[in-house]
Specification:
Length: 127
């Protein structure tokens, strides 16, 4: 029997490495950090002020994870004292439109999602 896979099926696979990358790029703090850094480069404490809910440890871990994945660049600025600035790397910048689209989608569809959740919960409570 002939296989009827979509021609781009290999591009659409979500295997372990893909899931790991998506988990790391689309998590709670990574989205906020990338959104902030798309506006302009920032130092660590500027990011903390921009995202007050994030703790120091979480922000450090998020920046390291984003840097490891090539989404963010850490730039040492030769001043006295030395300063470190974080910037969105070119590959990270390619996510900007996608993230904005995803956030627009969630805003537009959230009322329907909430109605579906209520229906589901009401049916579950009735059982």
């Amino acid at each position: 029997m002939e296989e009827t896979r979509h021609p781009d099926a290999a591009l659409l696979e979500v295997d372990a490495p893909h899931r790991e990358l998506l988990d790391q790029v689309l998590d709670k703090w990574s989205l906020r950090v990338l959104d902030s850094l798309c506006g302009r480069p920032m130092r660590f404490n500027e990011l903390r002020r921009e995202i007050p809910a994030v703790g120091q440890k979480s922000l450090t871990a998020t920046l390291r994870r984003l840097e490891r994945n090539g989404m963010v660049e850490r730039v040492v600025i030769d001043t006295r004292p030395l300063a470190v600035e974080y910037r969105v790397a070119p590959i990270g910048n390619t996510l900007n439109e996608l993230i904005d689209s995803l956030l627009r989608w969630t805003t537009m569809n959230m009322p329907e999602v909430e109605r579906a959740r209520e229906r589901f919960d009401d049916e579950a409570d009735a059982v």
